[in-house]
Amino acid sequence: MIARSEKRADARDLRGDAEEPPDAPDARNTELAPRERPRSDDEADDTRGLRGDAEAPPDAADTPPARPTPRERPRSDDEAANARGLKVHLRVTSVGGVTYHIVSLRPSTVVRFSTNFFHQTWHVLTGRPGAAALARLLWGLSFQRTPNTLVMLDHPHVVPTPFEGDRGDPIALIPASLTRFDAAHLPALRRRLAAPPTKTIRWHTFGLPAAIDAPRPLWSWRPRPEHSLERMSRAGGVVCYTAPPTLLRETALHVHAVREFGPMSYVPVANRDRSTWRPDGEFQIFSNFEEQVAAAIVARREVVDVPPAALLSMEARQAVWKQQERVLARRRAARQRSARAS
Q1: Which residues, given as ranges, of the chain have pLDDT below 50?
Q2: Around 11, how many Cα atoms within 13 Å sit in the side-chain half-sphere?
Q3: What is the pLDDT of residues 292-314, one digit of tens each?
Q4: Is the peptide bond before 156 cis (omega within 30 degrees of 0)?
Q5: How far apart are CA 130 and CA 153, in angstroms?
Q6: DSSP secondary structure, 248-293, as one string
Q7: What are residue 299's phi and psi, to 5 degrees?
C-alpha cells in the first residue's frame, strides 16, 4: 500500500506497499504513423482488382472474436477502486508527547459500522460495502512504516447497532509493534477527529486484488508467535483491534471473502488459545446492515423511546428485537405494494 498525498508536501509521511503500478509506456519510443493520403477512386478500383473477386471476405459471424488483452479487459469494481486509491483524511497530532498519524474516512465515503458486546465478545458490525472498505484499510495499514499510525472510525461512519439501536462505539485499527497502544490517549485522539484534517491522502492497496484472487485456505488454526500480539478490546470508550502486519493482511482477506457468504457472516479474531473457541472479537458482515439499523432505531423508539446511549434491560431488548421484526415486515410489505402499483 502506498498512501499518496494529494498535496506534494510531506508526501513521504506514510509509506507502504512496496508494489508499484506498472510504468506507462515511454512516449519517446512511440512513433506516430504518418497520415495517409486519401486514395482516388481509380486507385481504390486498382487495389480491389489486385485482390481479385474469387475469394469473398469471411462472414463476420464466422470470425472468432478477438481475445481482449489485459489492458482492454474491463476491470472489476474492486480493481478500479484499488487503482484509484481510497481518499482518506490524515491528521498529525501530538498527545502526551507522542506524535500520532490518524487516518480516517472522509464524511462523503458512504459506509457504516457499529459495535456491540455479546457473549463475552466484542463485535465490529458492518454491511458488504463496509467490509470492502474495511479490507482495504486493514491491508493498507499492514504496510505502514511511520510510527504511531492508526485508523480511527467515528461519526458519521459509526451508527447504532442493527439489533436494539444501542449507540455504537468508535473503532480503532492499530498495527502492533508500530503504534504505541496507550488507552489514556484514545479519548484525546477521538476528539481530534472533530478538527479539520491535516491533509487528504490516497490510500493505495495495489497488492490486494492479486492476494484476493490467489488460492489460500479459508482458516488456519495452527498457532503462530504473532497470534499473541492480536487483541480486540474496548479501552477509553473505543473498540480497538490490534494486530501485527501479517494478521492485519489475513484478516483483510477473510473479511473481503466472507462478505458474500449469506445474510450474515463473521470473521473471529484474537483467538489466542487455539485449543478452544474463545476469540476476543469478531467482524460481522450483514447483507442488509443499513436496513436493519434503520429498523432497530424505529423499533427502539416505538417500544421504549429512549436515546441510543441509554442502557436497556434484557426484557426491553427482547421487546425491541421483536418489534424490529415487525418493522422490517412492514417495510417489505410497503415495497411490494409500491412495486405492484408501478
Answers
A1: 1-13, 15-73, 78
A2: 8
A3: 999 999 999 999 999 999 989 99
A4: yes
A5: 11
A6: HHHHHHHHHHHTTSSSEEEEEE----TTS---SEEEEEETTHHHHH
A7: -65, -40
Nearest by Cα to 179 from 131, 245, 129, 258: 245
Could you tell me which of 41, 148, 135 has the C-alpha nearest to residue 103? 148
Q: Which residues contact 172 (CB under 8 A, 6 or more apart)?
A: 150, 151, 152, 153, 186, 189, 238, 239, 240, 241
Grid coordinates representing 174?
492499530
Helix ranges (DSSP H) in the chain:
41-51, 77-84, 128-141, 186-192, 208-213, 245-258, 289-303, 314-341
Using a 10 angstrom Cβ sphere, with 0-12 exposed, 13-18 middle and 19 or more buried, the burial of residue 7 is: exposed
pTM: 0.75
Extract long-range pairs of 338-342: CB within 8 Å, 24+ residues apart: none
In a 13 Å sphere around the CA of 170, the CA atoms on its Cβ side amount to 23
CA 16 – CA 142 distance, rounded (Å): 8
Q: What is the spatial distance between Cα 16 and Cα 86, in angstroms, rounded to a whole number?
A: 14
Around Cβ 308, how many Cβ atoms within 10 Å?
A: 15
Distance in Å from the first CA to the final CA of the chain: 47
Residue-wise pLDDT for 3-55, tens only, equals: 434 434 343 445 444 343 444 434 333 333 333 444 444 444 433 333 333 33
Cα gap 337→173, rounded to integer Å:
43
